[in-house]
Amino acid sequence: MKTAVANVQKLSLVQAVTDGLRTMMSEHKEVIVMGEDVGQNGGVFRATEGLIEEFGEQRVIDTPLSESGIIGTGIGLALNGFLPVVEMQFLGFIYPAFEQIMTHATRIRMRTLGKYHVPMVIRAPYGAGIRAPEIHSDSVEALFTHMPGIKVVCPSNPYDAKGLLIASIEDPDPVLFMESMRCYRSTKGGVPSGKYTVDIGKANVLKEGEDITILAWGAMVMLAEKAAEEYKKQDIHCEVIDIRTLYPLDKKTISESVQKTGRVVIVHEAHSTGGVGTDLISLVNDTSFLSLKAPIERVTGFDVPVPFSALEDHYIPTVDRIKKAINKVWTF
Amino acid sequence: METFETICYIDENGNVRNEEGAARINEKLAKEMYEKLLLVRTFDRKAISLQRQGRLGTYAPFEGQEGAQVGSASALKEGDWLFPTYRDHAASITFGHSIPRVFLYWNGRVEGCVAPEGKHIFPPAVPIATQLPHATGAALAEKWKGTDNASIVYFGDGATSEGDFHEGLNFASVFKAPVVFFNQNNQYAISVHISKQMNSETIAQKSVAYGIPGVRVDGSDVFAVYFETQKALERARNGEGPTLIEAVTWRFGAHTTADDPTKYRNQDESIQKREQIDPLLRVERYLKNQGYWDDEWAAEMQANASAVIEEAVEEMEAFPKPKVEDIFDHVFASPTWTIQQQKEEYLQQMRGEDA
Ligand SMILES: Cc1ncc(C[n+]2csc(CCOP(=O)(O)OP(=O)(O)O)c2C)c(N)n1
């Protein structure tokens, strides 16, 4: 982690995203922001607020309503000298662009033996818990971790959001940058002004503990921390790890923790089957199988579409469900 | 290049602009339209006020677009299919959707997606333009089954930028599907003005590329919309294939109740525009010009509309609580073991039993 000496401001996660964009746009004229409503409206979540005034319509571009067009054009710009940061208004509306990402953004480097590459960042708000209309709440990161050729990043706090966004823009390959809507304004945190990066591929040990490893990302990190806090009173110490990068996973940090604790709880709000949790189990299996003292527990969303808002709380993992899982691995 | 004039039967002052078209309007039809417009406007305003009171979730208002929705949906017949977006409740209600259910939809209840028995009304499309190919398919099915039923599909100006718009039109055109593509051009897709959405002068002209008829109609003129949609539906039923209709409208309010339109739209413009384009006012002026207007009748219509809407709100609020089982039970015809297991464990936990 490289941090320049700088002023630290209290920002929300969404403000940290804006700050990251502004920092990189000031530094590199190749960085452009594109998407639906990102200009004059400043984005439906205000993530690009003020950028059009500062950098003009040539660099903050309101596009037609066309995800495939946005990503496809972004690919063309990226392979010809620009650093596009494109916004999908919600991750649940990225599907029309799937083709462009899966068959082009992710493979151009391979198909040209490195002659062309796509240094593009795709930002996308995601996740349930804010009473959004249907489909807006999808958490489909695993569709992208399954794609060879794109990195998947998911910050849970303002500091990481800015640092990871800058690292993503600097990354020479495509990055899906997932922004939890539930985390957007839930807390403020210290964010240094100016440029700093948080390494892609590096998980963060948020709380140290010897007894149980809890692995989570995005909005689930808050819940994992709460559950850990409650068990601390019973003298059970959970190590809470914010995975932060879903592809590639941080093998070292995760395996070291599991080898220390021998017990694992994975928390994610995405569906269970084929979720990133499955990869984490596989990673633990490969690196730390003999350290395990209990089968790994997963607390996830169910294998059902994220329900309409009246029932969405029944879908998202809760502190209670996490506590049950902790209990299960502890008493095995 | 082919140009597309905006068809208008009754102008903003309620005067006849197109003799031939207007000749088909009579007092009964005009009063019926007034009544329908009033009902959906009352619905829309109530929904906004309920949302502000926290009794309804985020809502997508349509005030200003009632003429387009009511006029077009009035042209449908039993057996037809209607594919709406999240903003087309006026069309759905006109075609016979249950008003309490439409309210329920905006309360985050999946039950709101379910139209009354026998009504082919699809749940609102939330992703933009994805419903166009569905309408084409449903219409083709009717054709291949040998019925004279047709589909109508609603979408905004922004939707014409999505691939699905083009794919839906192209399929319909190639297979001569009995479908009416009904565009409401309210000139904004959230904050993006149509001038940034496309370089084409009109949406109607996009029909040319697909070799189908295109019609541009004044969306605030409920009569023109009604008769022009009827024509398109007749063509469809006669096996002549799809039509693209562009209804030129203006939405007075926000994109949704979660949106702040002052950031990108001059609100004074909307207020001024209302004077010119308000579809309800236009029918009122027409009725007055024709000598059909009656204050007492109008007051009665308003009282009726308010009563219907109030009753629907009560029904919505008295609706049984949502069933948690529903999120598990309707993913497949019979749940897979994963879903079954997740359901059992979750219900056990809800009952306070340890899984
Ligand atoms: C595929 C997709 N992308 C983005 C969105 C987010 N979104 C919802 S409504 C909207 C604007 C739609 O504009 P238009 O088609 O003109 O219809 P209007 O809302 O004006 O009726 C956008 C961008 C979405 N719902 N689906």
Summarize the topology.
The complex is a heterodimer of chains A (332) and B (355).
Chain A: E1 2-3, E2 8-11, H1 13-27, E3 31-35, H2 51-55, E4 60-62, H3 67-78, E5 83-87, H4 98-105, H5 108-111, E6 121-126, H6 141-145, E7 151-153, H7 158-170, E8 175-180, H8 181-184, E9 189-192, E10 196-197, E11 204-207, E12 212-216, H9 220-232, E13 238-242, E14 245-247, H10 251-261, E15 264-271, H11 276-288, E16 297-301, H12 319-331
Parallel strand pairs in A: 3-4, 3-5, 5-6, 6-8, 7-8, 12-13, 12-15, 15-16
Antiparallel strand pairs in A: 1-10, 2-9, 7-14, 11-13
Helix pairs in contact in A: 1-7, 3-4, 9-12, 10-11
Chain B: E1 6-7, H1 19-22, H2 27-52, H3 66-74, E2 81-83, H4 89-94, H5 99-106, E3 120-121, H6 131-145, E4 151-156, H7 163-175, E5 179-185, E6 188-189, E7 192-193, H8 194-197, H9 206-210, E8 214-218, H10 222-237, E9 243-248, H11 267-277, H12 279-290, H13 295-317, H14 325-329, H15 337-350
Parallel strand pairs in B: 1-8, 2-3, 2-4, 4-5, 5-9, 8-9
Antiparallel strand pairs in B: 6-7
Helix pairs in contact in B: 2-3, 2-12, 2-13, 3-10, 5-13, 6-7
Bound molecules: thiamine diphosphate.
Thiamine diphosphate sits between chains B (87, 126-128, 156-159, 186, 188-190, 255) and A (36, 65, 67, 89, 93, 96).
Give a concise summary:
The complex is a heterodimer of chains A (332) and B (355). Chain A has 332 residues and is of the alpha/beta class.
Report on this structure.
- The complex is a heterodimer of chains A (332) and B (355).
- With 332 residues, chain A is an alpha/beta fold.
- Chain A has two domains: 9-192, Rossmann fold; 204-331, Rossmann fold (3-Layer(aba) Sandwich).
- Chain A has twelve helices and 16 strands.
- In chain A, helix 2 links the parallel strand 3 (31-35) and strand 4 (60-62).
- In chain A, helix 1 packs parallel to helix 7 and helix 10 (251-261) packs across helix 11 (276-288).
- The longest helix of chain A is centred in the first third of the chain and has 15 residues, at 13-27.
- The model of chain A has no long low-confidence stretch (mean pLDDT 97).
- By secondary structure, chain B is an alpha/beta fold.
- Helix content of chain B is 48%, strand content 10%.
- Chain B has 15 helices and nine strands.
- Chain B has a seven-stranded parallel sheet, sandwiched between helices. In chain B, strands 6-7 form a two-stranded antiparallel ribbon.
- Chain B starts with 5 loop residues before the first strand and ends in a 5-residue tail after the last helix.
- Chain A binds chain B through residues 36-37, 39-42, 44, 62-69, 92-93, 95-96, 131-136, 272-273, 302-305, 307-312, 314-315, 320-321, 324, and chain B through 57-58, 86, 107-110, 126-128, 158-159, 161-164, 189-192, 196-198, 259, 263-264, 322, 324, 326-328, 331, 336, 338-339, 342-343, 346, 349, 354-355.
- The complex binds thiamine diphosphate.
- Thiamine diphosphate sits between chains B (87, 126-128, 156-159, 186, 188-190, 255) and A (36, 65, 67, 89, 93, 96).
